[in-house]
Amino acid sequence: MGNLPSQRITPDYPFLSVGLDFAGPFYIVNRKGRGCRIVKCYLCLFVCLRYKCIHLEAVSDLTKDAFIMSLKRFISRRGKPTEIFSDNGTNFVAAAKEIGSFIKRNHEPLVDFASQQSINFKFIPAYTPHFGGIWEAGVKSAKHLLRRVLGDSHVTFEELSTLFAQVEAILNSRPLCPLSSSPNDLLSLSPGHFIIGRPLIALPTPNLEDVKESQLRRYERLERLRQHFWKRWQKEYLSELQQRTKWRTNTSKLDVGDMVLLADDNAPPLAWKLGRVLRLIPGPDGISRVADILTTKGCVRRALVRLCKLPSAEDLNG
Fold first, then answer.
1. Total of domains in the chain
2. 162: part of which helix (H) or strand (E)?
3. Residue of 58, 63, 70, 73 lying closest to 102 (CA atoms)
4. Containing H/E element for 316?
5. What is the rounded CA–CA span in Å between residue 181 and residue 184?
6. How far apart (Å, rounded) are the C-alpha atoms in residues 246 and 86?
7. pLDDT tens, residue order, the chain (318 aa)
8. Do 172 and 232 contact (CB within 8 A), yes or no?
9. Residue 16 lies in a domain
10. Alpha-carbon distance 151 to 225, whole Å?
11. Residue 310 domain-assigned?
């Protein structure tokens, strides 16, 4: 495997080098009330190659003008990138065929517009999706869960744009690594720190998952979709951090002072429960299966299978 490109390892401003990808289609209604029509819209994803920050834009259709407007919205909010990486639109999957044909059809106009803005538009070689793994992972995190969360629900373009923005906040709140190696520091570094300089915090809202669909207003249904997305995303993200191995030997690599995520199925959106390992408690066979964790609300005891270690600076550099 080759070395990481310089855009991935050179410190600089967020969204200076970005990866671009499309996902969809998502089916929405053109207006509220009776007589509405079902139309398509798409998700345009921008991911920062340095800090894995994600920006989501709803695109009304696959035209050059619609994409350029979404790019202008991105530049207005995140700043102008120096280079944009994208695939070349070659897709075998039927659902992605129209997206691929759009990119191939507008290859030259997109490059011309980017060059006018002093942006270097780069396309990866054909049939090499692994060259764009960082934005493919972002699309997977957003698209697959959004499809399962939305299901057969048909929202308006404005409601879908709001949902995309809330999903973006969830993805940008994920813990990357501890802020420091101090055992008393219970804060973690997230992509949100590079965007606004502090963690992203959501407004408190009541749990709507157990309320009947017919009793919810449109705004409450949108909030319910967000809460559903949070639960699914949290479980999938935690499973990526955990190593699925058999418990025949002591495979725990937790040490005192490590920062961990506490798996909690009832955690509200954007509320990641973090803590530091105070003490490992061995069993009669000498294998530790339980640990005392220092959190902002005191010391708690949790099984190791409910703890996910955040990578340290040595892990990231090694």
1. 1
2. helix 157-171
3. 63
4. helix 313-317
5. 9
6. 39
7. 456 778 787 888 889 999 988 887 888 888 877 778 888 888 888 999 888 899 999 998 888 888 888 888 999 999 989 888 887 654 434 445 666 677 777 777 777 877 787 888 887 765 566 677 777 777 777 777 787 777 777 888 888 888 888 888 888 888 887 877 777 777 788 888 888 887 777 666 666 666 666 666 666 766 777 777 777 766 766 666 655 544 445 555 788 888 898 888 777 777 788 899 999 988 777 888 888 999 988 898 888 888 888 887 666 665
8. no
9. yes
10. 10
11. no
Residues 269 and 226: beta-carbon distance below 8 Å: yes
Query: Which residues constitute the domain of residue 70?
Result: 6-135
Smallest CA-to-CA distance from 51 within 147, 192, 145 is with 192
In a domain, 244, yes or no: no
Angle separating helix axes 64-78 and 107-116, nearest 10 degrees: 30
Instruction: Give the bridge partners for 303, in sequence order.
Output: 290
Nearest residue to 195 (alpha-carbon basis) of 77, 293, 89: 77
Are 57 and 78 contacting, i.e. CB atoms less than 8 angstroms apart? no
**Pairing between β-strand 188-189 and β-strand 259-262 as defined by DSSP bridges:** unpaired
